[in-house]
Amino acid sequence: MIIKSSTKDYQVHIEEDFSFFESLLQADNALFVVDKKLLGLYEKELFGRIPEDKLYVIEALEENKTIETALSVCERMTEIPGKRNARLVSFGGGIVQDITGFAANILYRGIHWSFVPTTLLAACDSCIGGKTSLNYKSFKNLLGTFYPPEEIYICPRFFFTLSQRDFESGLGEVVKFNIMSGETGLERIETQMEGLLARKPEVVEEFLRTSLAFKKDFIEEDEFDRGVRIHLNFAHTFGHAFETMSRYEVPHGTAVAMGMIMADRVSLHRGVMEEDICCRAERLLKKIIHVDLEGIDWNLDEVIKAIRKDKKQIDDALTCVLLEEGMKLKVVHDLKREEIETALKEMLEVLS
Length: 352
Ligand SMILES: NC(=O)c1ccc[n+]([C@@H]2O[C@H](COP(=O)([O-])OP(=O)(O)OC[C@H]3O[C@@H](n4cnc5c(N)ncnc54)[C@H](O)[C@@H]3O)[C@@H](O)[C@H]2O)c1
Ligand SMILES: [Zn+2]
What we know:
With 352 residues, the protein is α/β, with parallel strands linked by helices. The chain has 13 helices and eleven strands. It has helices spanning 20-25, 36-42, 67-77, 94-106, 120-126, 164-180, 183-197, 201-221, 236-245, 252-270, 275-286, 300-308, 337-351, and strands spanning 2-3, 10-14, 30-35, 55-58, 87-92, 112-117, 131-136, 139-146, 151-154, 318-324, 328-335. Nicotinamide-adenine-dinucleotide (NAD) binds at residues 35, 37-38, 41, 60, 62, 65, 92-98, 118-119, 121-122, 126, 129, 131-133, 141, 158, 161-162, 166, 169, 251-252.
């Protein structure tokens, strides 16, 4: 699959096995940035072959997704000859992606970057679209640029070692893409959900491909997120709020899955979504949301305060993306407090 971008078109390769690693190892002037947990899991099979002076290890924690880490990657790159011809090759999930994408963008005003997403979330969603984000103090994703990798290698074999929590978080985005695609998407994922949960390789690969294909249309039409791309924010207004409120105990994709229940409930009460669709979506979402609800303060004012912090909020009226008649996506700017209150109450009932 090729993704068109104004900086450079880039290729997404889906690989059966790890043989692609050979060609990455041969890259000249490369620094390999690897997720610490991943390094431990695949040291023998893969990463043990990277010379120590070409290896930079990152622990995938939100606290490490900072400008300091990105600068430290840049500093290590100064030891690599080649300068503007130097290359970052990174392996990991969204955290490693965000740090290395940012560093690759600012160093010498842009160097080569290859990315190997190893979480389901990064592979099915974040690896394309070119966004890079860093946290600053308590501000999540405050700093960011657009800088896609030159090439992306996805090997679904990596997903076997993901924890249930991280696999389910990735499924949150996968279910989202299918629900956003309307009746056909909903039906497709209903019939295949058990295979997905069992991580059946052929099923996971099918959903990997359809998720990326769905996102591709939006990011190619609106690379810099000024127009139609906002639709990809379906469920995220609420999702981002839940991530913050849980202090990132609830991972991104799971928070988005919860946000979908909220968005659908708002649509249901506005009379723009059939009850049958809403219930079918919830049946799927319940299978992938395992969250300690007691650990979060569900005070309505806290929820609204957290929603207001979302980057897509432009003024006093609350904005979100909903599914309306015929499961069509629509941006609305008139989300009301009472609607959030009802949807929240119902989401908590559905999940308890
Ligand atoms: N840039 C974007 O477009 C974009 C989009 C969505 C999310 N994000 C960001 O991505 C981050 C979340 O990304 P994520 O969910 O991929 O998580 P992550 O990078 O936090 O990784 C989750 C966990 O999985 C582990 N891991 C990675 N690969 C593994 C493997 N193959 N086997 C076992 N464990 C593995 C990591 O060590 C970590 O513990 C957030 O910071 C979010 O803001 C960025
Ligand atoms: Zn997301």
